[in-house]
Each structure stands twice: as C-alpha cells, then as structure tokens.
Amino acid sequence: MMTSVGAIVLAAGTSTRMGFPKPLLHWNGTTLLEHQVNQLLRLPCSEIIIVLGHESKMILKKIAIADPRVKVLECRDYHQGLSSSLKCGLKQAAKKDDAVMLMLVDLPLIRVETIKQVFEHGVRILAAGGEPFAVQPMHQNQKGHPVFLGFFNKLNWQNLQGDQGAKPLIQQLKHHILLETNDEGVIYDVDTPEAYENALTNSIFQKR
C-alpha cells in the first residue's frame, strides 16, 4: 500500500509571553522556524507545510527555505487559537497525504533521532492500513512532540476549536502509541525569554 506522509509546522501564534515572534528567534545560526523545517527535511515527507499567522509578512521576509517540498500557508484565524492553524494545515495536507507529522515551532531541542523514531514507527503502522492512530513521544510521563497522526482524514478534525490543538482528536483514538524517550526536548518549549535563554545556555542542551 503506497502512502504519503506530510509534515505541518505550526508557527502562527502571537508569541505573547515571549514578546517577540518565536519563529524568528535565533537558533544554531538560523531562525527557530528554519531549524524546525530543516529537521523535518531530513525525513522523506511528501511536503512540509508551514502555517503562519501573527506577523506572517515580516516572518516571510526574513526566512529563506528553498526546498520545493516546503509550502507556506497564512492562517487568517490564528487569533482563535492553535486549533485554527492546525485545521489550516490539515486542510492542505488532506489533498495528498494519508498522515502528517505535527511539529510546533517552539520545541527546537527535540533530537533528530527522536523525530526519525516517531516518523518510522508511524510509517510502519500506516503501511498496514487500518484505523486512525497517533504516535507520540513521552519524557518522564509527559506527552510531547512531534506527533504522527495516521489516517487523519477519517477523523472529524474540521470541528476543532480553541487552543487545544490535536488533543481532542488524539483522545478519540483507539490506537495511541506512546514512545518513552530520554529526550527532554520533546516537552521543552521556549515559550518565554527565560526558557529561551535557558535552552541556549544550559549545558544539558549543548550536545543538541
């Protein structure tokens, strides 16, 4: 069974707690957004959909991603919460993909090995066909990202609302596979200036 897997990078939020657009934060010689996209470009994804909202025009002027698999969407309803930008991305992915990898822009510490592990586990399940499912990494009993969502078009994602993202969808699934990992990056978001500085300077993260 031939299947297609896309990826969605959610980067539409207002960055209120950061006080600066998180997609444009400096990270490893590039921006946070470009870093996340580059991590996903290592996978054989059919497409990588970036969903922008707040300050989208400024962000577009300052990023440069040449890979033809990358598509940029502007979500006009981003102020309604994370679910709005997720629906925007899923609507685009639904045109060609059977599954998606969901990535948040503000979790840059996830190891590429972890991303590959989630992707490969999801692809194996996807190849067998069947019902919708999710594969999600965990660290110390906390569920993290990225999330692999298989056969998402069999779910009613069109009615998602608020700031919960994919949680309501995942809670409906019979098949939710959790992968335990020692990768703290799956739960460490840089949501505040303090968290960002800690991520940049903490020796735990220097190997990332």
Protein model, in words:
The protein has 208 residues and is an alpha/beta fold. The chain has six helices and ten strands. The strands form two sheets. Strands 1, 4, 5, 6, 7, 8, 9 and 10 form an eight-stranded mixed beta sheet that branches. A hairpin with a 2-residue loop joins strand 7 and strand 8.
Compact description:
With 208 residues, this protein is an alpha/beta fold. It has six helices and ten strands.
Rg value? 16 Å
The helicity comes to 25-40%
| Shape estimate | globular
Largest sheet: 8 strands, mixed
- Oligomer state equals single chain
Q: What are the key terms here?
A:
10 strands, two-stranded antiparallel sheet, 8-stranded mixed sheet, alpha/beta, 208 residues
